[in-house]
Amino acid sequence: MGVCEQNMIGVAAGFARMGKIPFTSTFGVFASRRVCDQVSMLIAYPHLNVKVVGAYSGIVSGNNGATHQANEDVAIMRVMPGMVVIDPADEIEMAQAVKAIVEYNGPVYLRLTRDEWPLVSPPNYQFRIGKACIVREGKDVTLIGSGMMVSQCMEAAKILAQEGIESKVINMSTMKPIDVEIIIKVAKETKAIVTSENHNIIGGLGSAVAEVIGENYPVVMKRVGIKDIFGECGTNEELLDKYRISPKHIVKAVREVIKKRH
């Protein structure tokens, strides 16, 4: 379809009407913001079996800068009725998620990057839509991440362990439907939560987790993510540091919530 992303969504809707399982693929920013109306009216509203794939998601957009950074795609897709939103943490989970969404009958937004990130999926891991995964046990604080930020949470947990702080790390790869049960469980266990996302802190993972604990079991919480600002060009490492979502910034947030909890 070239750069005709809106047309791509219409064609995909047509394929779905004929019983096919179409996958659309483009930059996350074009798969969400540019085609928002088409996805809403042609796919979400009739609940068609279309899988929308958004690559180069968040701030890590291959040095393409603000125009190609999808820092609001989760918020856009999460608000659409019936839309499943998935952000796999590594290549193991991605391979399983693709198969899972083929089996699922309905619209899905699948978020990914185009970079290699550390593996975090435990041995014999089985991805399930709507179910989070505990990738590290801990009793002092809970780190909840999605996508490539799960690996950043794991790095932060290693740093915190050297300070005597044991962090539970949750891979919340499905942001809608979110795993309400596990969020309430870890809130009761550690009474302190830090969310980490490669996305604007408004409307993404942090907002989704805050909604759950606010209604069910309020605890001290802090969101690590893009602070309602556009990005710019840079390497992944430079951008993670500048926009304060690197492991050291997760560590800082943990110290703050623990202090506030006490």
Describe what you observe in this structure.
It is globular, with a radius of gyration of 18 Å. α1 packs parallel to α3 (36-44) and α7 packs across α8. The chain has helices at residues 5-17, 28-34, 36-44, 73-78, 91-103, 149-161, 180-190, 205-216, 236-242, 247-261; strands at residues 23-27, 51-55, 84-86, 108-111, 133-136, 141-145, 167-171, 174-176, 192-200, 220-226. The chain has a five-stranded mixed β-sheet, with helices on both faces. It is an alpha/beta fold and 262 residues long. It is built from ten helices and ten strands. α8 (205-216) links the parallel β9 (192-200) and β10 (220-226). Helices cover 40% and strands 19% of the residues. It has two domains: 5-111, Rossmann fold, CATH 3.40.50; 133-261, Rossmann fold.
Mean pLDDT: 96
State the share of residues found in helices, binned by percent: 40-55%
Number of strands: 10
The poorly predicted ranges are none
SSE pattern: HEHHEHEHEEEHEEHEHEHH
Strand order of the largest sheet: 1-2-4-3-8
Radius of gyration: 18 Å
Question: How many discrete domains?
Answer: 2
CATH fold description of the largest domain: Rossmann fold
CATH architecture assignment name of the largest domain: 3-Layer(aba) Sandwich
Major sheet characteristics: 5 strands, mixed
Report the sheet-strand fraction: 15-25%
Number of helices: 10
Distance between the termini: 55 Å
**Shape by Cα distribution:** globular
Question: What is the CATH domain class of the largest domain?
Answer: Alpha Beta
Instruction: Assign the structural class, choosing from mainly alpha, mainly beta, alpha/beta, alpha+beta, or little secondary structure.
Output: alpha/beta
